[in-house]
Amino acid sequence: MKVLIVGSGGREHAIAAGVAKSRNVDEIYCAPGNAGIAEFAKCVEIGAMEFDKLVSFAKEKQVDLVVVGMDDPLVGGLVDLLEAEGIRTFGPRKNAAILEGSKAFSKNLMKKYHIPTAAYETFSDAEEAIAYLKTAKFPIVLKADGLALGKGVLICNTLEEAKEGVKSLMLDKKFGSAGNEIVIEEFMTGREVSVLSFVDGKTIKTMTSAQDHKRAGDGDTGLNTGGMGTFSPSPFYTKEVEAFCNQHIYQATVDAMRQEGREFKGVIFFGLMLTEEGPKVLEYNARFGDPEAQVVLPRMKSDLVEVMEACIDGTLDQVDLQFEENAAVCVVLASDGYPVSYEKGYPIQGLEKFKDQESYYCFHAGTALKNGQIVTSGGRVLGITAKGKDLKEARANAYAATDWIQFENKYMRHDIGKAIDEA
Ligand code: AMP
Ligand code: GLY
Q1: For a Cys-Cys bond, which of 11, 252, 256, 385 suits 293, CB 3.0-4.6 Å?
Q2: Helices then strands (H, E): number in the chain?
Q3: Distance between CA atoms of residues 335 and 333, nearest Å
């Protein structure tokens, strides 16, 4: 089989590594890919939003399966275009990717189908939003309706902050048209858990759980980022929590989408908060998480491509989805200054230490090849993942491996997985 993966981050590297292990795969392409993926896939210089070129390339190479890893092309309808040409594609169509593409849509869906989530209102008029905020309880959460690189969520402690937030999202258009509409929702407290799942339109099978660390600094300080590290499984995702989510959230979401005529095939990522009133949905994503994929996929025992094909064929009920009984931790090595401003182009040393390692992975997120040398090219540069028999061992292994890598302005959090000690 020939497989084309669309995307260029650590998540796509983890997907490519999973695809490469698959029994039936002969050749892997990645568009545009990165320097790490290029070690075992052919990277092609086509951007993830260059739909016409992607479709032509897939046709020309007679690709058997396309995997779309990123949110933007999914929300933009790349899957529909590929399918229209008869190309088998893993990922939701445009009308289902809206589950991630519009927070107003997903909140309304949850309300209509009684899926537990924070109480909310939606606004497309800034003055009305501010009038509402004057009567609201603080802290309160503002969310841009559309995609904003995970940065369109503002937690406001005072009315003043909230007014500023409305201005930046709706009037200054900090995230462009993503802020045409906003969701204002109740602030919840509790532990966060990410649960990714495979979905074939009717059946849903959840993967092992994970937890992300979104803030830039140790102790959950600083700005929100795309994610600074993950661990899997989450010790807080107990059998009771899982049973509740099975009963009230997972299948209910898949059924709701079907009911709405928006059959979902691909990965649904449930961002959950474990509140005192029980688990509630913080957000849905229509794809693997990044860096959740970097701890979940290395622990997957089932053949990734076979599971993806079952999602396309509607035969997921026949799949026995299996994960290893161990644990994994991923520590992101970033460029100092991320997520605001940072320098790029520094050579990276030590990558060869990860070759032929069983339980250690170095996933590339923002790297490039310059004159034969791999250099930093993004805010998040690498994801260092290690497995262990339990979370503590995995964390010790991952942090030990962060020392193998050197580059100028290397920055990381030192407390990824600290919550494990409280479990
Ligand atoms: P989202 O992109 O919706 O997952 O939001 C990003 C982050 O903001 C989440 O991972 C939470 O840490 C936080 N957040 C979002 N919604 C809420 C909420 N209603 N209450 C508290 N924190 C929230
Ligand atoms: N790690 C969170 C996300 O992928 O959206």
Answers
A1: 11
A2: 13, 23
A3: 7
